[in-house]
Amino acid sequence: MIFLIILIFIIMALADFPKLIKDKRWYEVTILSGVYIFVFVLAALQTSGVTLPSPIKGLQSFITNVLHLTYPKQ
Predict the structure, then answer these.
(1) Taking Cα atoms as reference points, which of 42, 44, 64 lies closest to residue 54?
(2) Is the dihedral of CA 58, 59, 64, 66 positive or negative?
(3) What sections of the protein cross the membrane (predicted)?
(4) Position with higher pLDDT, 54 vs 73
(5) Cα–Cα distance for residue pair 46/54, rounded to 1 Å
C-alpha cells in the first residue's frame, strides 16, 4: 500500500513541479514541497496503522485556552 502512496505522490509532483521550476518560482516550490512532505508523512502513518489524533481537538484547545473564546453562558 505504501508503494501506491509513493506512486501517487510522484505523479502529483510531476504534474506540479516542472512548470514551477521552469518559471523559477522558488518560493512556491519550497512551500509546495513542504506541504507535500507533510501530507506524505500523514498518509504513510495512516497507511501504517498509526492512530493519529484529531486536529479538531487541538483546534478546540487553542480556541478555548489561548484565545479565551467560549460559548456564552446562559
Answers:
(1) 42
(2) positive
(3) 25-45
(4) 54
(5) 12
Cα 18 from Cα 33, distance rounded (Å): 13
Using alpha carbons, select from 3, 71, 67, 12 the residue that is nearest to residue 39: 12
- Site of grid cell 478555548: 64
In whole angstroms, what is the distance from residue 12 CA to residue 20 CA? Answer: 13
Q: Give the DSSP letter of residue 67.
A: S
Q: Which cell goes with 22?
A: 521552469
Three-state secondary structure call for residue 22: helix
In the chain, domain spans: 2-66
What is the C-alpha to C-alpha distance for residues 55 and 46, in angstroms, rounded to an integer? 14
